Amino acid sequence: MKIVLCGYMGSGKSNVGELLANKLRYDFIDLDKKIEAVEGKSIPKIFSEKSEIYFRKKENEVLKSVLESKNKVVISLGGGTPCYADNLEQLKNDEEVYLIYLKVDLHTLTNRLSKEQENRPLLKNINSIDDLEDYIRKHLFERQFYYMQSDLIVDSSLLSVEEIAQQIEKKLL
């Protein structure tokens, strides 16, 4: 089985994924970290040196290779992964994939991401909290179509990483 976590940036996919993998004794793959390892540079550097289009193509290639794994694995996707190329189709057509959307409300995402803007290439040029909230609102609206096709939706706005992992674990058993 491959447990795949999707959701907007800042939704906790990496933290929840790592904890869940430990609890289940599965391997853990953070897709963004895997891309960084393949490219030998950080996501912000890939965006600035090669462009978002290049990144999305590489993301698609790395996702395909990760999905070929025969191991039990928890995979944390990047926030936009299900929305580009044929990524969602790959995930939905793989019978071993159980796709989980970590849904977080706009206010919580804005608060979390306002503290991390410098490390987020898509956010670092946004200058005010209102503009950041508008940007996230627009993206959530656009991406909701993809995220909502998940097998499980966990409203994780008010939950700790541990509580989210526990909820997912209960659904899997």
User: Which structural class should the secondary elements be placed in?
Assistant: alpha/beta
Quote the CATH topology.
Rossmann fold
In CATH, the homologous superfamily goes by the name P-loop containing nucleotide triphosphate hydrolases
Query: Helix count, per DSSP?
Result: 8
Instruction: Note the beta-strand portion.
Output: 5-15%
Shape: globular
Helicity range of the residues?
A: 40-55%
Please give the largest β-sheet. 5 strands, parallel
Tell me the number of structural domains.
1
Radius of gyration: 15 Å
Strand order of the largest sheet: 2-3-1-4-5
Q: Write the element-wise H/E pattern from the N-terminal end onward.
A: EHEHHHEHEHHEH
CATH class: Alpha Beta
Corresponding CATH architecture = 3-Layer(aba) Sandwich
How confident is the prediction overall: mean pLDDT? 96
Identify low-pLDDT runs. Answer: none
Let me know the number of strands: 5
Q: Please give the alpha-carbon distance between the first and last residues.
A: 13 Å
Please give a structural write-up.
This protein has 173 residues and is α/β, with parallel strands linked by helices. It has one domain (2-162): Rossmann fold (3-Layer(aba) Sandwich). The chain has helices spanning 13-24, 31-39, 43-50, 52-67, 87-93, 106-114, 129-147, 161-172, and strands spanning 2-6, 27-30, 73-76, 97-103, 152-155. A 5-stranded parallel sheet has the order 2-3-1-4-5, with helices on both faces. Helix 3 crosses helix 4. The longest helix is centred in the C-terminal third of the chain and has 19 residues, at 129-147. The protein is globular.
